[in-house]
UniProtKB/TrEMBL annotation:
CDD domains: Sigma70_r4. GO terms for biological process: DNA-templated transcription initiation. Residues 32-98 form the RNA polymerase sigma-70 region domain. Keywords: DNA-binding, Sigma factor, Transcription, Transcription regulation. This is Sigma-70 family RNA polymerase sigma factor. It comes from Gemmatimonas groenlandica. One of its GO terms (molecular function) is sigma factor activity.
Length: 187
């Protein structure tokens, strides 16, 4: 028994692009890439924290998605499927590269109300604190607090239950509070 939910025009258009891409239309796949490029990059960047690594993960993710497109079921959400592939590619890159550069922290974490020197120091401290989190907790907190994903979306992207995403977010925030509190007391 299915539910009769209204389907948006955008969802119908995306489904048509998916079906065309599955039939071999490269222009349709390019349209899917265009639609999902920014969010795919945000997913990857949340995991690897490096612009270059995020771009590599997005490229690997789109390539893998293209190769696996025939196995995608159009009744599923294409975005969630794609973002999970990109997240897995980013996790693979993160495992290969453990060294992070604090200067590569996403610009969205800086505050326009701070003096630039203080902002740079704060960003470096936050980057170090984020780096003490495990890959999954770091991805969850950045996807939620920076990118605005909901718990269910994060669960789908990372391949974890929604409750685990909530729990990881809670634990990541508590850990960051402790880390940043320690950094504040060092000042």
């Amino acid at each position: 028994m299915g539910t009769d939910r209204p389907v948006s025009a955008e969802a119908l258009e995306e489904r048509e692009l998916v079906l065309s891409a599955q039939a071999g239309d490269h222009t349709a796949f390019a349209g899917l890439v265009h639609r999902h490029q920014r969010r795919a990059y945000a997913v990857a960047r949340a995991i690897v924290l490096s612009h270059d690594d995020a771009e590599d993960a997005v490229q690997e993710g789109f390539l893998h998605a293209f190769r696996a497109l025939e196995r995608f079921r159009p009744e599923q959400a294409f975005g969630a499927w794609l973002h999970r592939i990109v997240a897995n590619a980013a996790l693979d890159i993160a495992r290969r590269r453990k060294v992070r550069d604090a200067d590569e922290l996403p610009e969205t974490l800086s505050s326009p109300h701070r003096d630039p020197a203080e902002s740079g120091e704060l960003r470096a401290r936050l980057a170090r604190a984020l780096d003490t989190l495990g890959e999954r907790q770091r991805a969850v907190i950045v996807l939620h607090d920076v990118e605005g994903y909901k718990h269910a979306e994060i669960g789908s992207i990372l391949g974890i239950p929604e409750g685990t995403a909530r729990s990881d977010l809670h634990h990541a925030r508590a850990h960051l509070r402790r880390q940043l509190s320690n950094l504040r007391s060092e000042k």
